[in-house]
């Protein structure tokens, strides 16, 4: 993390429930309003809002340590900040900081708080990714994981169903966790699922027959079939086994994944919620699926994003290496 000597509490002021950098609040009421408006009206995703606020606050904390006022910030200052930031964090993190700073300044320019965007001319570090870093499971490990989950408890049925949604529909964990009972519905002779994706978008696709089985068994045992507006995947009260009406959060799902992977005896390092999305995509492509259809099923904007989850080349590379017989 970039080290800044200025105490943070001297560079931050509190306005209601909002924390504002002094650099912004000192620029006047209009700047303060646009800053708060940026995070409340412009950014709807809570995770993005949290990340952007952290990155932008750190930038203005640095500006405060340099005795810079808002109107005094120019491209050379942003470039200096980026240069220092690169010494402490990875290129992807720097690019995230740059995206947050650029978007905020764009918003301030549109609101006539600043004349130009000082970050527009600053280039971030180059970072090209051709292969994702998220570890994935083999089909054998995935099957072993499913089989290891006890189905004589409601928690076990819930966990198995949630994992299956991520594997068989390539769903992001947050999209799966936001599902309501009515988001698993009949369409002709098959059952479909509706995922609540980023930006308020809905993504619908048919359910795999195994996913149908796991969801049917879970919903029947939970007795939530007649509660269409209720959350599909819910939490439990401590160790009582009593289901609540609250939905699972990403952190709860991550903790569940860690417990289930360990209980299955799988020595897999770094497995997380996103691993099951990559597992489903890789297995689909390995069995003859097309990148175009995988992109559509995963609801990706670009096939390049889908390709990051494709690990079918890993086995090919290993086979080639083993040909070096000495």
From TrEMBL:
Q: Which GO terms describe its biological process?
A: DNA integration; DNA recombination
- Core-binding (CB) domain segment(s): 30-109
Q: Where is the Tyr recombinase domain?
A: 132-323
Which UniProt keywords are listed?
DNA integration, DNA recombination, DNA-binding, Plasmid
**Which InterPro entries does this chain map to?**
CB, DNA_brk_join_enz, Integrase-like_cat_sf, Integrase_catalytic, Integrase_recombinase_N, Integrase_SAM-like_N, Tyrosine_recombinase_XerCD
Question: From what superkingdom does this record's organism come?
Answer: Bacteria
Instruction: State the PROSITE patterns in the record.
Output: CB (PS51900), TYR_RECOMBINASE (PS51898)
Q: Which GO terms describe its molecular function?
A: DNA binding
Similarity annotation = Belongs to the 'phage' integrase family.
Please give the name of this protein.
Tyrosine-type recombinase/integrase
Q: What lineage, starting at the top, does this entry show?
A: Bacteria, Pseudomonadati, Pseudomonadota, Gammaproteobacteria, Thiotrichales
């Amino acid at each position: 993390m970039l080290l800044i000597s200025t105490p943070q509490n001297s560079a931050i002021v509190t306005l209601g429930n909002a924390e504002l950098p002094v650099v912004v609040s000192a620029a006047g009421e209009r700047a303060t309003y646009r800053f708060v408006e940026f995070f409340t009206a412009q950014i709807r995703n809570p995770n993005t809002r949290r990340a952007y606020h952290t990155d932008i606050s750190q930038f203005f904390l640095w500006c405060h340590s340099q005795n810079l006022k808002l109107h005094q910030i120019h491209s050379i200052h942003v470039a200096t900040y980026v240069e220092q930031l690169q010494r402490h964090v990875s290129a992807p993190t720097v690019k995230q900081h740059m995206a947050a700073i650029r978007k905020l300044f764009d918003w301030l320019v549109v609101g006539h708080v600043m004349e130009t965007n000082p970050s527009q001319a600053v280039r971030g570090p180059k970072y090209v990714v051709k292969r994702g870093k998220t570890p994935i499971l083999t089909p054998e490990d995935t099957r072993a994981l499913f089989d290891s989950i006890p189905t004589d408890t409601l928690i076990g049925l819930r966990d198995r169903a949630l994992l299956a949604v991520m594997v068989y529909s390539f769903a992001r964990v947050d999209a799966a966790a936001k599902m309501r009972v009515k988001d698993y519905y009949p369409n002709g002779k098959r059952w479909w699922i509706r995922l609540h994706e980023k930006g308020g978008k809905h993504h619908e696709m048919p359910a795999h027959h195994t996913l149908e089985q796991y969801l049917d068994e879970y919903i029947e045992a939970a007795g939530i079939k007649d509660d269409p507006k209720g959350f599909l995947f819910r939490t439990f009260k401590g160790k009582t086994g009593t289901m609540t009406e609250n939905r699972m959060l990403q952190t709860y799902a991550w903790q569940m994944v860690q417990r289930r992977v360990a209980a299955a005896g799988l020595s897999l390092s770094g497995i997380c919620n996103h691993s099951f999305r990559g597992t489903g995509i890789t297995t689909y492509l390995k069995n003859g699926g097309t990148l175009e259809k995988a992109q559509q099923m995963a609801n990706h904007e670009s096939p390049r994003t889908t390709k990051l989850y494709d690990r079918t080349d890993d086995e090919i590379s290993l086979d080639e290496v083993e040909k070096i017989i000495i």
